[in-house]
Amino acid sequence: MKTFGDINNNNKIVLAVFGDIHGALDEMFETCKLYENIYQEEIDYILQTGDMGVFHSGSVLDKATKRFAKEDPTELGCIPYISGDKEAPIPVIFVAGNHEDFDFLKKCDNNYIDPYNKIFHISSGSVYQINKGDISITLAGIDGIKPTGKSEEVVRSKIGRSFYSQRAIDKLLCYSPGSVDILLCHEAPISDELLKLYPDGGSEDIRAVIERLKPKFCFYGHYKHPPDPFRILDTICIGTNNPRYYQLKTRESNMIRVEVIKHKNTLHWSYKLLNKNEL
């Protein structure tokens, strides 16, 4: 039987990281269940890098979501989880992307979006801690993509919604180096690797946050053809929609397994982008 790590070791946390699922929560959870059945290993938390498709039954949809939902109703697959008709089988921690109900999410900053307290929105510029046994992991989140556009008025209207705010960046820059383990973003940090594929891609602000906080990982979404994992200083930066690896059947999101094991008071980190033949 295939296995990643020691399935009998309780002194570890296993995370599954997903990218742009656009409402396909059912498929995300089914993928985790399939993984658990194959590898006989429990996933403790799901991390999601934005464009989860957070819309409730009364949401006003953006143009893209409305168009895709006509062809694929699962674009609105978050609705039953928000209403309580469905319960998430694994706790989820997510940041907002650029296709969500931002008015609803403002009411859920640093809070759960569902009645079962299973799906948690990290407010942009905030930190959140997850725990299991003696292990604690600190996450930080940045919602949205970098501000860009021809009209200053349009840009201003989207700040703090589909565009991240400078205030969120400044808040994170106040934290000390090493205080954050994982940075969750929708936008990517600017890098030579990304610029080769997207000449206008990536954010200097997010790179500055990484250089300041020095997290173990930065996971980002949004880009459909990201480069393979690259480093900024010692931080491993990983795009979550990479077509060279396993993707959900109906979405571009990968599944990335992150393991944290505590041994002799030291945390040991590892990750794996699942390959196409591993699920």
Task: Summarize the structure in short.
This protein is of the alpha/beta class and 279 residues long.
Stretches with pLDDT under 50, minimum 5 residues: 1-8
Looking at the overall shape, the CATH architecture is: 4-Layer Sandwich
Annotation field: number of helices:
8
Gyration radius over CA: 18 Å
**Name of the CATH class:** Alpha Beta
Helix content: 10-25%
Strand order of the largest sheet: 4-5-3-2-1-12-13
* Overall geometry: globular
Query: Describe the biggest sheet?
Result: 7 strands, mixed
Order of helices and strands: EHEHHEHEEEEHHEHHEEEEE
Distance between the termini: 13 Å
CATH topology: Purple Acid Phosphatase, chain A, domain 2
State the domain count.
Answer: 1
The counted number of beta strands is 13
**Helix/strand structural class:** alpha/beta
Walk me through this protein's architecture.
- The chain is α/β, with parallel strands linked by helices.
- The protein has one domain: 4-Layer Sandwich (Purple Acid Phosphatase, chain A, domain 2).
- 23% of the residues lie in helices and 24% in strands.
- It is globular and about 55 Å long.
- The N terminus is likely disordered.
Features:
seven-stranded mixed β-sheet, 279 residues, 8 helices, disordered N terminus, six-stranded mixed β-sheet, alpha/beta, Purple Acid Phosphatase, chain A, domain 2, 13 strands
Write the layout of secondary structure elements.
Blueprint: E1 12-18, H1 25-39, E2 45-48, H2 63-71, H3 79-83, E3 92-94, H4 102-106, E4 111-112, E5 119-121, E6 127-132, E7 135-142, H5 152-158, H6 166-173, E8 182-185, H7 192-197, H8 204-213, E9 217-220, E10 230-232, E11 235-239, E12 255-263, E13 266-273
Parallel strand pairs: 1-2, 2-3, 3-5, 7-8, 8-9, 9-11
Antiparallel strand pairs: 1-12, 4-5, 6-7, 10-11, 12-13
